[in-house]
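User: I've been trying to design a sequence by hand for this structure and keep getting stuck. Would you show me what you'd pick, starting by listing the structure so we're on the same page?

Assistant: Good idea, let's start from the same input. This is the structure you sent:
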């Protein structure tokens, strides 16, 4: 049943992945901003602030330049309008407007591209508008500057009031936008003068492009520089985090702990934020080290007391057993109640001796005493252990599941035999008669481990007891149908011996299936040495 659960686990994971949409080709969602690293958030904020600042500066610069150029163009337009007004009055001589008046764009001082037109007092254009043409681009041409008639939307010019105030007027695709102003002549007609906005618009457009490119380059440079600066600034914090991570990997729950890991002194400057954190972490580690030292000293005293007490109790217990057995075997007949009392004394002394031996073994293992390290055939150990268990519990069904080849591990044979006997005794004592107990063994070449399993189909271990099952003096409740007394040290000895051999022990239990699994290192395979070839 255990293997069935193992095989079904991937299907459960796949169903979970399908339900949550987690597939192999899924697209990664962007994490919320609060879950970004501090470095990423700082870089993003700096770049965003610079982008906003660059946009504001660029916008203000563009509008300021555009305003300045428009003011300068309006000044030029005002001067051109005055020159055109005086020239038209001079040409007309105070009389009606003559056709020559349309040539006011040729008045000396008028810039290239100047537009000129004359509007009658009743609101119509007297002559087609003219524009002062550019000088020919050919170096051999000698054509002078002159007016050029253009076709435009006359309504745009008719709507311009003769108040000498510049206005922006769109004259169509041929000319584009112009700044237009009109002034009244002495004969009641109006002269209209305009200057093109093409130069102003081109200058503003070029400035906008330049500012955009410079801002973009600045943002890229700021991004790279901020990355480097923040990375350098975060290195002390990373070292502090590395120290904390290193401490978190130490086995602080057992053994003699030497907590010598500390934050480097360079990262404990109290004048900096990271230094404050590093200094506080060092002080905390100092307090933890002191507490661990005190705990270790206390545990060492308890272990020493248990070892000494166990050692001292062995002789009195042996004497009690000996005198009880000697009295029971006396040649004279003893009363039945005395015989029964002596039997109880002897059995309790035997049980007490077993408890003392177990405590002494645990104390020695806690002290880290070295075990024998020799090749041990686990197959033979398992066969002997199952035979002994069958003799002790014939009411159970005992089976073996062994490989064809022997499996050898490196270890202490008596201690490993005790591990197997404790596991089998645990299955015998805590399961009802008729329970099937299977002892299995296999070699896992991929991991270099020997895997020993002791499985039964009994009522199982309550889930709340499984987490404390290997603790000392841990006992199951009535649901395991305990038939005989138990010291509560059997599985604790199993775990201590297995760990001393560099292995692991685990349990998986549910009603109808309980499996204890022990893994131990296999004997290393000897390298093949090629035979020397005869000369």
């Amino acid at each position: 049943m255990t293997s069935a659960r193992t095989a079904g686990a991937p299907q459960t994971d796949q169903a979970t992945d399908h339900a949550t949409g987690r597939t192999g080709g899924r697209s990664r969602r962007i994490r919320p901003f609060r879950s970004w690293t501090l470095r990423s958030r700082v870089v993003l904020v700096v770049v965003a602030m610079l982008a906003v600042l660059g946009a504001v500066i660029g916008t203000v610069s563009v509008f300021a330049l555009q305003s300045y150029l428009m003011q300068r163009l309006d000044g030029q337009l005002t001067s051109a309008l005055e020159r055109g007004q005086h020239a038209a009055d001079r040409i007309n001589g105070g009389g009606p407007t003559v056709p020559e008046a349309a040539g006011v764009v040729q008045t000396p001082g008028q810039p290239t591209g100047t537009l000129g037109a004359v509007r009658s007092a009743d609101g119509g254009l007297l002559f087609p508008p003219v524009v002062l043409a550019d000088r020919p681009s050919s170096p051999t041409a000698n054509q002078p500057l002159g007016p050029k008639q253009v076709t435009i939307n006359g309504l745009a010019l008719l709507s311009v009031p003769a108040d000498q105030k510049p206005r922006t007027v769109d004259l169509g695709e041929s000319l584009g936008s112009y700044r237009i102003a009109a002034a009244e002549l002495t004969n009641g007609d109006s002269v209209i003068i305009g200057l093109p906005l093409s130069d102003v618009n081109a200058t503003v457009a070029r400035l906008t492009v330049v500012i955009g490119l410079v801002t973009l380059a600045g943002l890229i440079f700021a991004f790279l520089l901020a990355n480097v600066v923040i990375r350098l600034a975060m290195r002390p914090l990373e070292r502090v985090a590395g120290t904390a991570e290193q401490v978190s990997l130490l086995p602080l729950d057992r053994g003699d702990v030497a907590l010598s890991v500390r934050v480097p002194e360079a990262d404990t400057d109290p004048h900096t934020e990271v230094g404050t954190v590093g200094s506080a972490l060092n002080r905390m580690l100092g307090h933890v080290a002191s507490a661990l030292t005190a705990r270790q000293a206390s545990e060492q005293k308890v272990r020493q007391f248990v070892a000494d007490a166990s050692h001292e109790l062995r002789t009195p217990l042996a004497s009690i057993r000996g005198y009880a057995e000697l009295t029971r075997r006396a040649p004279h007949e003893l009363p039945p109640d005395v015989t029964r009392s002596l039997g109880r004394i002897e059995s309790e002394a035997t049980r007490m001796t077993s408890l003392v031996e177990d405590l002494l073994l645990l104390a020695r293992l806690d002290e880290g005493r070295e075990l024998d390290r020799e090749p041990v055939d686990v197959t033979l150990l398992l066969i002997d252990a199952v035979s002994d268990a069958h003799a002790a519990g014939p009411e159970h069904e005992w089976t073996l599941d062994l490989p064809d080849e022997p499996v050898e591990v490196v270890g202490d044979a008596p201690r490993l035999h005790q591990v197997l006997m404790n596991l089998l005794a645990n299955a015998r004592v805590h399961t009802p008669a008729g329970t099937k107990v299977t002892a299995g063994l296999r070699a896992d070449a991929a991991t270099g481990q020997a895997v020993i399993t002791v499985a039964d189909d009994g009522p199982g271990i309550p889930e709340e007891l499984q987490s404390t099952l290997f603790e000392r003096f841990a006992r199951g409740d009535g649901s395991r149908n305990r038939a005989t007394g138990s010291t509560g040290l059997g599985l604790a000895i199993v775990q201590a011996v297995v760990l001393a051999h560099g292995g692991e022990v685990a349990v998986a239990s549910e009603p109808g299936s309980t499996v204890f699994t022990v893994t131990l290192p296999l004997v290393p395979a000897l390298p093949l040495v090629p035979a020397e070839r005869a000369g």
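That's my pick for every position. To get oriented when you compare it with your attempt: The CA atoms of residues 253 and 292 lie 9 Å apart. The mean pLDDT is 80.
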